[in-house]
Design goal:
With about 160 residues, the protein is mainly beta. The protein contains 1 helix and 10 strands. It holds the Pfam family Phage_T4_gp19.
Length: about 160
């Protein structure tokens, strides 16, 4: 082997733990929103209700069946800026003109460059808004909160394969 050549990388051994993704490396993509500096996303989830029933003639056996599927609202926290995009989206819902948009939450690698996971919120719309707490004694960034209702959740791995919930 020439002195400048590196030895081949050994294969990953069974039981080797891969580093988990970092929770702070993410970005949001909301159709028709050009600005947004998001600091936190919470509430990604799906719930399948359980329906229990007893087997006829055998009261000791209780079966569980999947029932209604629900998606909890997703809460976005973001730094207050002069952009009106999110506010205008909220105000259209307040006026009764709900504008449903697809929202993507994109997880990035440790370097913050490459997309490794993506969650897509289907037909999302603003359900709640909370203004930033104002405190004259604080030096913190003003953080607003926007809560989105949505009709479905998809998860895509870095390669783009989709798993719908």
């Amino acid at each position: 082997m020439p002195a400048s050549a590196k030895p081949p990388t050994p294969p990953v051994q069974p039981g080797t733990v891969a580093d988990p993704y970092r929770a702070y490396n993410f970005k949001l993509i909301i159709s028709n929103v050009t600005e947004g500096h998001f600091t936190e996303v919470a509430g990604l989830g799906v719930k399948v209700e359980r329906i229990s029933y007893r087997e006829a003639g055998n009261s000791s056996v209780v079966h569980a069946l999947p029932g209604r599927v629900t998606y909890p609202p997703v809460t976005l926290r973001f730094g207050l800026t002069s952009s009106q995009d999110l506010w205008n989206w909220l105000m259209s819902a307040v006026d009764g003109n709900v504008s449903r948009r697809n929202v993507s939450i994109v997880m990035l690698d440790a370097a913050g460059v490459t997309e490794v996971l993506r969650w897509n919120l289907i037909n999302a719309w603003p359900q709640e808004w909370y203004g930033a707490p104002l405190d004259a004694m604080s030096r913190e960034v003003a953080i607003e909160t926007l809560v989105l209702a949505h009709e479905g959740l998809q998860r895509e791995a870095g390669g783009g394969s989709t798993a719908a919930a």
